[in-house]
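Quick one: structure tokens for this chain, please?
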Amino acid sequence: MTGSTKGALLQRDGKRYAVVTRMPAGIVTPDDLEKIAGIGRKYRVPMLKITSGQRFALIGLEPGDVADVFQELGPLAQPESAPCVKFVQACLGTEMCRYGNQDSIGLARALEERFRDQTFPAKIKIGVSGCQRCCGESQIRDLGIMGTNRGWTVFFGGNAGRKARIGDIVASDLTAAEVMDCAGRLLEYYQRNAHAKERTARFMERIGMETLKSELLTLLPYIQIEKVS
């Protein structure tokens, strides 16, 4: 891949590329939508696709247009040069949904701000759900947060890929501040101990929950180990 296409995704034809936007919690403004639509028209983008991670993919870009598209999108899409947090998706939480127990959008934005510039052994996907209906797909994300009427539940090591895995429950009934601390410690532990290109699901299968408990979770005063499954 040449420098002009850095951060874009090579498509199946081996010639054209896709650029994916970054939209924490899947929130967009009218100005964002107008900018994306304008770029789509200007560069004759063959397809605009909403992804499962609540982002827009501009698909079918010619190689010579990639750098210009990144530049025009600005903060909406920054080229990625290393494994990082790919997205933080979220349900409506308490903003609009009658079932929402916790503010999933607010927490998703805080997680995006905290981790967006960090590098990890492999890509990280985060899902935040405001209730146990889990519309933010929390149980199948590398880091998943799910709201209940008692607080937040944290999952780690989920995956929806070819070898699907439900994440391990590492903590329950946490405050938002405790979630932020727990998430930081989990991802830091993963940074230190995972193999290169090892996703969190395979990492947890390798080390096991008992190792995570003994080396990390026992050090966190807000986690009652006997309640960790």
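The beta strands are 9-10, 17-20, 47-50, 56-61, 85-90, 124-129, 143-148, 151-156, 168-174.
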